[in-house]
Amino acid sequence: MKGKRIVLGITGGIAAYKLCELASRLVKLGASVHVIMTDKAREFVTPLTFQALTGNPVWSDEFKGDSKTAISHITLAEEADLLVIAPATANTIAKLAFGFADNLLTSTALAYNKKMLLAPAMNSNMYLHPATQENLRILKLRGVKIIEPDSGRLACGVVGPGRLGETETLLAAIESALFAPKSLIGKRVLVTAGGTQEAIDPVRYIGNRSSGKMGFALAKAAKLRGAEVVLISGPNNLTPFPGINYFSVRTAEEMRTLVLKHFADAEIVIKAAAVADYRVADPSRQKIKKQADILELVLTRNPDILQELGQNKAQQVLVGFAAETDDLLQNAAQKIKNKKLDFIIANDVTRKDAGFNVDTNLVTFLFPDGSCEEIPLMPKEALAHRIFDTIEGLPGFKSLNNLITNKESD
């Protein structure tokens, strides 16, 4: 989002105040935000608020604002990378559907010919009225992306659809609209994340320090690139990117069951989860009391999910992770061979700036032919895109594209 110019059109709904947070978040992410407010919008929030949050003049009149701009609606439309209208009232939606240009926002929208996002917010009856639904249908046919409203208690007291989507939902839609290329459209991606927890008794478990951040970043990157994404994760404190099919599990057996269920439908599989190698053979049904000085637990091996996938893969691109504390490259090279991977991502989890429970990672890519590529320290979200760039350059990915193309032509 850094360096992108976003025009944020705000209309006269009670939800206008929610756009203050959105504008602030966009600026923090590096976007240049330019706000257009209708006359009614200024009844709910003052222009000065948005000017302070964005650092840019707020537009509301065709003939006022930036004196260097001769024809404001044309300039705003031409310079914008994205036009976002939120909250979009029934009145503004109707104007957009029928090409009205009676204020600066509708004039800018009519002059704009790139990506547009529209987030309706209004009374449930107004939203569900056939006229509003028909107007939204018309806009969708023209390529406008509609961010569907949430359901809940509205300002008027009615409970139903019509609430402006949450800020995170709006941010996700904006980030997705701005991201290019959409190189994974038509692809199905399966990602695993987080650690598993293997019960000792009803209150204790064997686990590890995996936060799930790398897997969640990979799922988000795949979604931004246009893929249909399934994310299966052990316990975590993260929120999946909107639009991802998310499944939460606790144990290795639960993860194996879900992974095998979705494996056959996926073209790309990335196993970023830190699955426990062992589980307690006979977990206690009651809490184990503190009595003996030494407590012995009998452990039994968990299934090796990644190896099982390698043995059963057909056309899938299969990628794994090797979280190691010693002999990093040697251990990773053995895994790529044993598990029949297209490549493996090796990282030293003893580092404080990489591996478990941090936002950055320092890794090495290893390939079946013995070659490797050292990747410098970077945020996990940036690394996720680096991983998909590498996947898209693999012979297996190119074969996958040819297979999908042939299926479509059949």
Notable traits:
410 residues, alpha/beta, 14 helices, Rossmann fold, 19 strands
Lateral arrangement of strands in the main beta sheet: 12-11-8-13-16-17-18-19
Helical content (DSSP H or I, runs of 4+): 25-40%
Ends distance = 39 Å
> What is the CATH superfamily label of the largest domain?
CoaB-like
Structural category: alpha/beta
Low-confidence stretches: none
Broad CATH class of the largest domain: Alpha Beta
Biggest sheet record: 8 strands, mixed
Strand content: 15-25%
Rough shape? Answer: elongated
What value does the average pLDDT take? Answer: 92
Radius of gyration: 25 Å
CATH structural architecture of the largest domain: 3-Layer(aba) Sandwich
Per DSSP E runs of 2 or more residues, the count of β-strands stands at 19
**How many DSSP helices?**
14
Domain unit count: 2
